[in-house]
Design a protein that fits this description.
Blueprint lengths: L1 H13 L15 E6 L2 E6 L10 E10 L2 E10 L5 E4 L19 E4 L2 E13 L2 E10 L2 E6 L5 E8 L2 E10 L2 E2 H4 L7 H14 L3 E8 L5 E7 L5 E7 L7 H14 L2 H10 L1 E7 L3 H6 L2 E2 L6 H5 L38 H11 L3 E8 L4 E4 L6 H17 L3 E3 L6 H8 L6 E6 L8 H5 L4 H20 L15 H30 L1
Parallel strand pairs: 15-16, 15-18, 18-21, 19-20
Antiparallel strand pairs: 1-2, 1-11, 2-3, 3-4, 4-5, 6-7, 7-8, 8-9, 9-10, 10-11, 12-17, 13-14, 14-16, 19-21
Length: 502
């Protein structure tokens, strides 16, 4: 009980609400409710970049052998209708997440209050629901996602009991409970780290479009040079957060590393999640790989890793709002990209590692010019060796690690991408995240040892790049070329001599 009270005090002191106020809905949802009335809901793709994030939908209503279709849009930040002829000015099928007992919501027909929790089974999943009541009427909403499972809905002045019968959605947070990262629980964990260790400092570097904090957990001296690890710039890529948590747990209890950071005036900074809204959108979504784009991006459908002002207009980003790599209307149009850029600009960053999944390898930045490129290649190869990954040089794109390397280069600022995992699974969660505990442990341990090496052992004050010795294969190639050239010279000489005799 004491621990629970402390967590609540910490939540209040940092200004974090115990629940998210927006509603979280993405395109391509299908919800089918049956009962006294039939409702079928289709959420629609955006037609343009929404400054105020919204969801547009189509609702088919079947009642008394008649069918009517309604269309319109709701704001994600409030759940209020902003256009169309939808029958509700406040959307009753989705409410904010993580609401407490005695919470209240003002719907079209007045105030509904939360009165308790119930556990139900839906599609084989055990779901915790929060019960809202108005007189004898009730509604059961999934507490973690805000989705209506069963309850009374008002339509044309009357109430009808409906129940979710079918949907194309997957309860990702339940199906993959051991590998899924929940934003609320992540926040509580980070706050506990902040409370438990004097050399740990947690702060928000900014907020997402929907108002969620982007956390930076710093370990070591506040004014120290920074080794930055960022993760989850794409919503489904939660593995980066998982391995970061593993490393944090090992580092904070390792006195040798903590003392080394202090003595060398270096701090480790873990920024996560860079895309908290995308992480939350990933909680409930169609599971097929082709739907990944809408959980990958932020609330305005922007791929944040294409929104930085370095090479924003690259051909490797799209101007189509529905594309998985939509770059946004302008560089740094998104608050998440601005928050990260501002933080990096204000820090003395010696190395930035941006964790990703969906590929496999260590990405070394394209050439900047001078000594830093040789150093980046040397360190990149070292990271690849310790992580047991291939390495390759990246292309010019508007990515977070290149924002660090190209825009905020401070002489010897290094930046890399580590692609931790990929698979051929048709499900986007399994493509971007491991679903084996032993594999998760293996990747996490390698990452911890690598980041601990650069925090504790690597000499940042006296960097020497070893001279590369010619490899056997290179010598063999040179020798072969020399033999071929010699043979050609001999052949030409003989041909010339024969021609002379004739």
């Amino acid at each position: 009980m004491r621990r629970y009270i402390l967590i609540l005090i910490i939540l209040a002191s940092i200004g974090y609400n115990a629940y998210s106020k927006p509603i979280y809905v993405r395109p391509n949802w299908i919800l089918k409710y049956t009962g006294d009335i039939k409702l079928t809901v289709y959420t629609l793709k955006p037609t343009s970049y929404p400054i105020d994030p919204k969801i547009c939908l189509e609702v088919e209503v079947e009642l008394n052998n008649s069918r009517n279709t309604y269309k319109g849009c709701y704001l994600l930040k409030t759940g209020h209708r902003i256009s169309g002829n939808l029958p509700w000015s406040v959307f009753p099928l989705i409410i904010p997440r993580y609401l407490d007992l005695n919470s209240s919501i003002e719907f079209d027909d007045g105030e509904w209050r939360s009165t308790g929790f119930e556990y139900i089974i839906f599609k084989g999943y055990g779901i915790k629901t929060i019960v809202f009541s108005r007189g004898k009427l009730y509604r059961l909403y999934d507490w973690n996602t805000g989705l209506l499972i069963k309850g009374y809905i008002s339509f044309s002045g009357k109430y009808y009991l409906i129940e979710l019968n079918d949907t194309n959605l997957e309860w990702i947070y339940i199906r993959y409970r051991n590998f899924y990262v929940d934003y609320r629980n992540l926040t509580i964990y980070l706050m506990e780290m902040n409370r438990s260790y004097t050399y740990v400092y947690l702060h928000s570097i900014g907020k997402s479009v929907l108002g969620n904090d982007i956390w930076a957990l710093e370990i070591g001296p506040r004014s120290g040079r920074s080794i930055v690890v960022s993760s989850c710039i794409h919503g489904p890529e939660m593995l980066g957060i998982k391995v970061s948590i593993y490393a944090i747990n090992r580092i904070v209890s390792n006195k040798t590393i903590i003392d080394s950071l202090k003595n060398r005036n270096i701090k480790l900074v873990f920024i996560m999640p860079l895309n908290p809204d995308g992480l939350e959108f990933s909680k409930l979504a169609p599971p097929e790989r082709e739907y990944r784009g809408y959980v990958r991006k932020n609330a305005r459908y922007v791929d944040l890793n294409r929104n930085f002002n370095f090479s924003w207009n690259t051909q490797r980003a799209s101007a189509d709002v529905n594309a998985w790599n939509y770059k946004g209307p302008s560089p740094l149009s998104e608050p998440e990209a601005v928050a990260f850029s501002s933080y990096i600009a204000g820090e003395d960053v010696i190395m930035h590692i941006d964790l990703h999944t969906g590929e496999y390898g260590v990405v070394i930045p394209p050439a900047y010019g001078g000594k830093v490129d040789k150093l980046a290649e040397y360190i990149g190869k070292k990271i690849a060796e310790m992580m047991n990954l291939p390495y390759y040089r990246g292309s010019i794109i508007s990515a977070a690690y290149l924002q660090t390397y190209m825009i905020y280069q401070k002489g010897l600022t290094l930046a890399f991408i580590i692609e931790l995992h990929t698979s051929d699974s048709p499900r986007w969660f399994e493509r971007y995240n491991v679903i084996s505990q032993s594999k998760l442990n293996d990747i996490s341990e390698k990452f911890y040892k690598m980041i601990a090496y650069f925090a504790d052992e690597f000499d940042w004050n006296n960097i020497k790049i070893p001279e590369e010795e010619p490899s056997y294969s290179r010598l063999a190639i040179v020798t072969l070329i020399a033999i071929i050239l010699a043979a050609m010279i001999v052949a030409i000489y003989r041909m010339a001599k024969q021609g002379y005799r004739v």
